[in-house]
Each structure stands twice: as structure tokens, then as C-alpha cells.
Amino acid sequence: MFGRRRFLSFPLVIGAVIIGVVSGKAIFGPPLDDYWKKKLQEEASAKETDAKSS
Predict the structure, then answer these.
(1) Is Transmembrane included in the keywords of this UniProt record (predicted)?
(2) Rounded to whole angstroms, how far apart are CA atoms 4 and 14?
């Protein structure tokens, strides 16, 4: 039915990779940015409390 007689073409693979990267950034980019902003703020506040306590 769907027999493959040869490998996928190089431009097809490159196009699929580009589409995957762009859609992945569109889907997961904003939540990851928010996560890292919160994480950096937590680390900065933890360092400030450590500096104050010593």
C-alpha cells in the first residue's frame, strides 16, 4: 500500500525540521519564557535572603 522504495528527499526533511522548530517555538515559547523569568526571580530573592542573613 505505502511501500517506500527510496529514502526521503533532503529538502522534504529540511522543510519538516523547519516547520517543527517554528511550531514548537510558537507553542512552547511563551510558557517557557514565563517559567524562566519566575525561576530567575526566585533565585535572585533566595540570594538576597542569604546575603541578609549572613
Answers:
(1) yes
(2) 19
Cα–Cα distances in angstroms (integers) from residue 2 to residues 5, 34, 48, in the given order? 10, 43, 62
State the pTM of this model.
Answer: 0.56
User: Helix, strand or coil for residue 1?
Assistant: coil
Residues 45 and 54: their CA atoms lie apart, in Å, by 14
Backbone phi and psi for residue 5, each to the nearest 5 degrees, phi listed first:
-100, -15
Grid cell in block for residue 49:
535572603
Using CB atoms within 10 Å of the CB of residue 48, give its burial: 0 to 12 exposed, 13 to 18 middle, 19+ buried. Answer: exposed
